[in-house]
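Supplementary Methods, section 5.1.

A reviewer requested that the exact input to the structure prediction be made available. We therefore reproduce it here, unchanged from the version used in the analyses.
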Amino acid sequence: MEGVPLAPETGSASRPPPRWWKRILRTLGLAGLLVIILGTVLILIFENSLIYFPTKGGVGPSPGQEVWLTCSDGVKIHGWYVAHPDARVTLLFLHGNAGNLEDRRDMLVRLRELPANVLLVDYRGYGRSEGKPDEPGLYRDARAAYDWLLTKAPPGRIVVLGKSLGAGPACELASTVPCGGLIVQSAFTRAPDMASRVLPLFFWARWIMSSKYDNLAKVASIRCPKLFIHSRSDEIIPFVMAERLFAAAADPKEHEWYDGGAGHNDLWIVHARDYFPRLARFLGGIAP
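The structure derived from this sequence is encoded token-by-token as follows.
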């Protein structure tokens, strides 16, 4: 309109200063982005350190035979093999994510008395074994142990027992080679599911971590007899994961859920009077 001055089309004078809440939102957004970037870098760098807690050395003499195995990538791992004269099955015991063979000495002796022959191996990076642990490496370790056992027993008499993290290589092995049975104890569904539980503030970790250990998908394709064991009061891996694994598993399958305050690591101690006879009944069905 004529006679009415127009505001200039350009220049900072025409822009109102940003409101205080916009500045705060911008600051929070930048801070959140920085947290996500730094968190992602830390997860990518330290992922394996958050999964594996090996104890190097500190392994005494074997209660049976000392075993050294060379994996497909050349890494040498250490194990113990104990035989029982009346055994009709052989257990391949794949332990959890902490410690080493020495921490499982007492359980190894008890497993032998089922009766069963038992091979217990330390993953790469644990005990006296070479290398550093990661998901592909643990799969190679389990396969090397299985191949060694084939010199002792036929596939149908080899039963794989995977506890906690060990359920990952156990399920991978049972899904790729013939075996007589699979025992899954105190196991998680998938590694990303555990990441959401262990690192709730880093909620995006489940989508960027490289370790999968997808037991949930694998149990659906494993056709050998399976026994799932879990404590309802497990303080590390929630019982609901055991229920999901069992529901997803192919037949034939059995489960044993324990009450009475047993935790993640002491189930076999708290319920020893029931635990070992239950294993014996399962193994008896495989090799009557």
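Residues 78 and 204 are 36 Å apart (CA to CA). These observations are discussed further in the main text.
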